[in-house]
Amino acid sequence: MTRPQAPPVQTQRWVDGEWRQAGDLLAAEEPLQLSLDGEPLSIVMRTPGNDLELALGLLWSEGVITALDQVARVRISAEAGETEPGLALEPDLVESNQVDVHLAGRPGRRPQRSFLSSSACGVCGATTLESLALDFPPVAPGPAVDAALLPELVERLRAQQRVFEQTGGLHAAGLFSADGTLEVLREDVGRHNAVDKVVGRALLDGRLPASESVLAVSGRAGYEVVQKAVAAGIPVLAAVGAPSSLAVATARRFDLTLAGFLKKDRFNVYSAPERLQR
After folding, report:
1. Is the dihedral of CA 189, 191, 195, 200 positive or negative?
2. N or C: which end of the chain has fewer CB within 10 A?
3. What is the pLDDT of residue 216?
């Protein structure tokens, strides 16, 4: 069950020099308590929906899990209404906005501390290039991608942002094949949450590392988005907005193709341009 919108609110709207009463649709934002083996790990401010994907994508990006079979079971709020064939889900009839992931055997890395993730910043555990390099290798060569395709991916992403069209308040992340076919799209108030949901879906579908895919995001390319692309093994990242200096440094360190400022007829490439063909 997805709750991407909050109930409508009444607003005062200034139009042509006078005030008017108007209703407005807002993107939903609520806290999600993420626990690991019953112990609180993180509070994530997110748009409700696809909470299982969000939790698994975040744990993958942080190096806590390195394979889906490390997840024994997941206790998730019954109100989420989520099901996943092949994964043991236990509905929590008491707590709302909760996901508790229980691991089987030995995980890839247990976090040394809890971390807080808001809708504004997704950096949680790996905060330096050096620590990131200990957990993830450079991305695979991946496919050759038609350079002219990248701006089209942004248009296809926007065309599928149904909740954004209603609220104007959500970011989107989309995983595409090398020929531009949309494989999965998720929206969220946090750009990094949208990426985590996409990565979580790829994990559940047995498609990580996503070494033949292209990730397109509706916002800027901050470090946290590049980090998650590296963790997922995605070789090409295309962003509507600007990258940060640390995002570019990270992309170059891990040989990820990073493109930003995508418009209909132009974009900038900051790293590994050899994957893009004329």
Report:
1. negative
2. C
3. 96
Cα separation, 59 vs 7, whole angstroms: 31
Cβ–Cβ under 8 Å, residues 144 and 277: yes
Please give the pLDDT value at position 47. 92
Name residue 158's amino acid: R
Helix (H) or strand (E) holding 216: strand 213-217
Q: What is the spatial distance between Cα 72 and Cα 229, in angstroms, rounded to a whole number? A: 25
Ramachandran area for residue 101 (φ above 0: left; ψ -120 to 50: alpha; else beta): beta
The four Cα atoms 171, 177, 183, 184 give a dihedral, to 10 degrees, of -20
Other C-beta atoms closer than 10 Å to the C-beta of 147 total 15
Q: What angle do CA 104, 200, 81 make, to 5 degrees?
A: 85
Name residues of the chain where pLDDT drops below 50: 1-2, 108, 112-114, 116-125, 164-165, 167
Written as one letter, the residue type at 240 is V
The answer to whether the CB of 257 falls within 8 A of the CB of 224 is no
Note the pLDDT of residue 161: 66
Say which of 25, 26, 103, 121 is annotated catalytic: 121
What pLDDT is attached to residue 169?
57
What integer pLDDT is reported at residue 7 of this predicted model?
65
